[in-house]
Specification:
The complex is a heterodimer of chains A (113) and B (114).
Chain A lengths: L3 E4 L2 E4 L5 E7 L5 E7 L5 E9 L2 E4 L6 E3 L9 E3 L8 E8 L8 E2 L3 E5 L1
Parallel strand pairs in A: 2-11
Antiparallel strand pairs in A: 1-3, 3-8, 4-5, 4-9, 5-6, 7-8, 9-10, 9-11
Chain B lengths: L4 E3 L2 E5 L4 E6 L6 E7 L5 E8 L4 E4 L2 E6 L4 E6 L8 E8 L9 E3 L3 E6 L1
Parallel strand pairs in B: 2-11
Antiparallel strand pairs in B: 1-3, 3-8, 4-5, 4-9, 6-7, 7-8, 9-10, 9-11
Classes of the chains: A mainly beta (113), B mainly beta (114).
Chain lengths: 113, 114
């Protein structure tokens, strides 16, 4: 039982490049979400999903796309990377309504030059 | 926007001492949670307190919640060097069915000196 896995662990992009951050979970959790964490800041919600085929925007969605074709996977796409997207990205899961604990992946550290 | 705000931003104590961190929030909540983050790692859930609870214990952790003041505190007793980490409060802000966003504060960085 791996829990929540994220790949890659580290990534360096040039401005304008696109890439996909992968998140996978093996806990059969309904809810998945993406956060970014910047120095001196808490976590800010980018996008979230309450089940396969359903996604919604969080606090800071601009410049990011998500899709949820399966329960297990919730990829985050950067369409055209900008230096302002340099951050650490965390994927998290939650079992569903009526449950409260979030389980976090180890994070992806992204640098955009 | 940040819902929870932790205080202090940084705290340095000697091993064996108690550490107290505070969190204030702005809107009504279903529950408030505390998470720990070790350097370079993801967040780990520590404890949850519901809006109708006033105090909760888990091992060396004690959490209080005062909904009238919209504040919570996390007490770690008999601290150990392994408790060195950043601690975040997160609120479940009662946005309704299907919406469950947790809103995190900026965290308190705790250093426990051996």
């Amino acid at each position: 039982n791996a829990g929540v896995t994220q790949t890659p662990k580290f990534q360096v992009l040039k401005t304008g490049q696109s890439m996909t951050l992968q998140c996978a979970q093996d806990m059969n959790h309904e809810y998945m979400s993406w956060y970014r964490q910047d120095p001196g800041m808490g976590l800010r919600l980018i996008h979230y999903s309450v089940g396969a085929g359903i996604t919604d925007q969080g606090e800071v969605p601009n410049g990011y796309n998500v899709s949820r074709s399966t329960t297990e996977d919730f990829p985050l796409r950067l369409l055209s990377a900008a230096p302002s997207q340099t951050s650490v990205y965390f994927c998290a899961t939650r079992a569903g309504l009526g449950t409260d604990t979030q389980y976090f992946g180890p994070g992806t550290r992204l640098t955009v030059l | 926007s940040q819902q929870g705000e932790e205080d202090p931003q940084a705290l340095s104590i000697q091993e064996g001492e108690n550490a107290t961190m505070n969190c204030s929030y702005k809107t009504s909540i279903n529950n408030l949670q505390w998470y720990r983050q070790n350097s370079g790692r993801g967040l780990v859930h520590l404890i949850l307190i519901r809006s109708n609870e006033r105090e909760k214990h888990s091992g060396r952790l004690r959490v209080t919640l005062d909904t009238s003041k919209k504040s919570s505190s996390l007490l770690i007793t008999a601290s150990r060097a392994a408790d060195t980490a950043s601690y975040f409060c997160a609120t479940d802000d009662n946005s309704g069915a299907g919406s469950y966003q947790l809103t995190f504060g900026k965290g308190t960085k705790l250093s426990v000196i051996p």
